[in-house]
Give the backbone structure.
Amino acid sequence: MGKREVRACVHGVARLDRRTKDLVRRLEKGDIAVIDHRDIDRVAAETLISKGVAAVVNASPSISGRYPNGGPIRIVRAGIPLLDAVGGEVMEVLQEGDDVEIAEGALWRRGEKIATGTLLTVEEVEARMEAAFEGIGDELRNFARNTLEYVEKEATLAF
């Protein structure tokens, strides 16, 4: 991860937590929220938006494709940059309170690239949501199969 002068697109103080609901208690307007939240849900997104974050950096995929989740579209429609799937290492490398910026599809600290991801657009989120809607049948079938297997196993143990 080399040094490089970058023109900041979004600049702020990093606040990070693996649990979004714990992070929002510490967020202040203009902070950059760094989370590890696969499939960001509507409630988490609305809470981040209400805190007035300057941007969201997600270590995990904000939309995995397993099911259509309404969080990412709310974030990007609110005009908040969402740097997606930067990898879990960001949670180890970055420190709470670091001065960071998002530029060129990456997270930077003092001119050093910390993590790279995809800066999601409304169009990209909509395309991923459409793909998730198309695959929801498979996900529901897997859920039902797993549930029936669990019930069968537990019924045998219980009775």
Observations:
- The chain has five helices and eight strands.
- Helices lie at 20-23, 42-50, 71-77, 90-93, 122-158.
- The CA atoms of residues 82 and 120 lie 6 Å apart.
- The chain has one domain: 10-158.
